[in-house]
Amino acid sequence: MNLTSWLPQLVIPINLAGTLLVVAFLFFLIRWRKFAALLTLLAVTWVVGWSLPGVSLWAGGYLEQRYPHISIDRIPEAQAIIVLGGNTANNRTNWFEELDPNNTLSRVDYAASLYSAGKAPQVIVSGAALDGGMSEAQMMARSLEQLNVPSNKILLEPESQNTRENALFSINKLRTNSITKVLLVTSALHMPRSMATFENRGIEVIPAPVAPQIVLPERSDVDLWVPSWRTLHASRSIIKEYVGLIVYWARGWI
Fold this sequence. Notes:
By secondary structure, the protein is of the alpha/beta class.
């Protein structure tokens, strides 16, 4: 497991809190009780903080609004649509509601809508097989075909295992096909890191994020400052993006 995928797992609230509590217990045994108490307080604060809807709205909402979602009719035309693999928060339309399989909006759904609206004549799907089976690119291609995108209008990039490789391998395919202007489709939360990775590589990239997910439902009993297990579980996606931005910056990838 590389640094980019290892760090988010470490700082996931439950994981980090558990680690801090174990270390706190060890310090307690050697009578460093003030330090043990501090670590315990940090563990509890980290978990409770990320379980609050208000924290997700602030931290995740900031990333989602970096590249605001706009209506399809306002999106300019390009030579191709690039769709990055992934399913932020299981593609639920709203972060704070239970998952309804009949009410989801995936990156593939949105890309198909862009294609149907004539925003680009072909679609590139990018993503490897992270579990050793069928690649994300192949699965997305199948879904696009079911959404009436012709198979001969779909290009596969099935090798990339992270956002940086999405950019490197997709851009190689773009250059091979003389494509210089693309629409980039991914979740609103993932778009800042994606755009930063794709930019300055000789290709004009236009952000086309899926509708934001970290918004309060119109009719909602969600209390911003009451802990929620669903919010805590979903927070790993926000944490992953911030860690990814820091790691990509530190390694000179963005």
